[in-house]
Amino acid sequence: MPLNLAVGDIITTKKNHPCGSHDFEIMRVGMDFRIKCTGCDKQIWIERRNLEKRIKKVLRDGEPVDKQSLEIKNS
Predict the structure, then answer these.
(1) What is the pTM for the complete model shown?
(2) What residue ranges do the domains of the chain occupy?
(3) How far apart are the C-alpha atoms of 58 and 74, rounded to whole Å?
């Protein structure tokens, strides 16, 4: 199930970026995501499916958000 991620969310990934940072800011959402490394400001395009597999933690407005609460429910 897709996650309800928003522009401005900060995500922590399981794998680090070559600069050493694990944190990325979401710049664009959709089928593909554009994320920006908070360590070196490099922007990366990544497919939703690949990004959602790599997410370890999500911060929204500085507060940690549980991944289960971000799942979009199909009703």
Answers:
(1) 0.85
(2) 10-62
(3) 22
DSSP string, 1-67: --B---TT-EEEESSPPTTS--EEEEEE-SSEEEEEETTT--EEEEEHHHHHHHEEEEEETTEEE-H
What are the backbone angles phi and psi of residue 47, rounded to the nearest 5°? -70, 150
pLDDT tens-digit profile of 28-37? 999 999 999 9
Place of tokens 């664009």: 28
Looking up tokens 């944190």 gives: 23
Contacts of 48 (CB under 8 A, 6+ apart): 2, 30, 31, 32, 33
Distance CA 56, CA 12 (A): 5
